[in-house]
């Protein structure tokens, strides 16, 4: 009887041990499952965060690139605007220069149109053979006396001119020109006349066109040598009135001085 009790106690003990062992195994399994689930969730969360961070970085990069593109576009726009402004200013300057040139040309044309033909018609100095126009002496005082080789009054008056010229010496500010109204006379004949008389300034044969222009400016008397017509061109290009009759050297010098001062 005693042995049976011992045997039962041992059996119960084994059953209890077995029961405890089974419970322990059962308790461990849920714990393992929960831990695994938590790790997986943490990994998923970490992946999501990394994806979110990556997406955020990409968005920031995109925004940065967009900003850079905008800045580049603005810079290009500014450069284009500056280039267009500079080109516009250059075109305006060119236009202004062209207008100035046109204005100068018009002024010159108008000035030339105001100049009488007798000033610009080419003449030949029979003493030197050089060609000149009365306009070439701009800025100087020019004494002009129409004459004829056959005119005795002319020779007398030109003698007074010769004395006045001698008193002026080698002045380059005063020029003397005698114009023969004998349009059919040769340069050689007029040159011989200057050698005979000793008149040492410019002598030239006036052309018919020049005589017509002189008459338009001063009247018919300028083509009448015996009246000893003469006039003075001032340095500014204007002229005195036509004078006729005899004038002595001193009077000629006074008139030249007055004309040179304007």
CATH architecture group name of the largest domain: 3-Layer(aba) Sandwich
Number of helices: 6
Detail the poorly predicted runs: 22-37
> What gap, in angstroms, lies between the N and C termini?
174 Å
CATH topology of the largest domain: Glutaredoxin
What's the total count of β strands? 6
What does this structure look like?
By secondary structure, the protein is an alpha/beta fold. The chain has two domains: about 70-115; about 120-260, Glutaredoxin. About 65% of the residues lie in helices and about 10% in strands. It is built from six helices and six strands, in the order ααβββαβαβαβα. The protein has a four-stranded mixed beta sheet. It has a two-stranded antiparallel sheet with strand order 1-2. Strand 1 and strand 2 form a beta hairpin. Helix 3 (about 150-170) crosses helix 6 (about 250-260). Residues about 20-35 have low confidence and may be disordered.
Key traits:
four-stranded mixed sheet; 10% strand; rod-shaped; alpha/beta; two-stranded antiparallel ribbon; 262 residues; Glutaredoxin; 64% helix
Quick synopsis:
Residues 22-37 have low confidence and may be disordered. The protein has helices at 2-114, 117-120, 152-168, 187-197, 208-218, 249-260; strands at 123-124, 131-132, 141-147, 174-180, 202-205, 231-233.
């Amino acid at each position: 009887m005693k042995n049976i009790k011992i045997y039962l106690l041992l059996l119960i003990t084994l059953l209890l041990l077995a029961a405890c062992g089974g419970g322990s195994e059962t308790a461990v399994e849920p714990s393992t499952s929960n831990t695994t689930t938590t790790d997986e969730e943490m990994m998923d969360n970490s992946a999501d965060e990394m994806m979110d961070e990556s997406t955020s970085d990409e968005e920031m990069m995109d925004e940065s690139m967009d900003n850079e593109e905008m800045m580049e576009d603005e810079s290009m726009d500014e450069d284009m605007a500056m280039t267009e402004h500079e080109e516009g200013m250059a075109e305006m300057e060119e236009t202004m220069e062209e207008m100035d040139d046109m204005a100068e040309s018009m002024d010159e044309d108008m000035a030339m149109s105001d100049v009488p033909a007798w000033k610009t018609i080419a003449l030949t100095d029979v003493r030197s053979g050089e060609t000149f126009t009365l306009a070439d002496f701009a800025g100087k005082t020019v004494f002009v006396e129409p004459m004829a080789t056959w005119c005795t009054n002319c020779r007398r008056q030109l003698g007074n001119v010769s004395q006045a010229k001698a008193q002026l010496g080698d002045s380059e500010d005063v020029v003397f020109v005698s114009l023969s109204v004998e349009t059919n006379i040769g340069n050689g004949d007029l040159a011989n006349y200057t050698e005979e008389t000793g008149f040492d300034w410019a002598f030239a044969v006036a052309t018919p066109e020049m005589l017509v222009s002189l008459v338009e400016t001063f009247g018919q008397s300028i083509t009448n040598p015996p009246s000893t017509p003469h006039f003075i061109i001032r340095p500014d290009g204007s002229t005195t009135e036509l004078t006729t009759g005899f004038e002595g050297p001193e009077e000629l010098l006074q008139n030249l001085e007055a004309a040179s001062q304007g």
